[in-house]
Design brief:
The chain has one domain. Helices cover 9% and strands 31% of the residues. It is globular, with a radius of gyration of 13 Å.
Length: 68
């Protein structure tokens, strides 16, 4: 398992190595299948992976990270 190393020596898991990660052309367009909403037609709209990390759903530490 690989981790991102930050300046403060804290280790963070990479979204791309998580079972919930749905890759797209770029990371900012990639989705996280852990967080989403179901509309009236029962279609699921997933959140962007980078926003899940920034807005503390999963957080910068990868709270809900599960390795593939």
């Amino acid at each position: 398992m690989r981790f991102l190393v930050r300046a403060n020596i804290t280790l963070f898991p990479k979204c791309s190595e998580c079972i919930y990660f749905e890759p797209r052309d770029t990371f900012t367009l990639s989705k996280c299948r852990r967080f989403g909403e179901i509309d009236l037609n029962k279609r699921v709209t997933y959140e962007y992976a980078d926003l899940c990390r920034k807005n503390h759903q999963c957080g910068p530490i990868g709270k809900y990270f599960e390795p593939k």
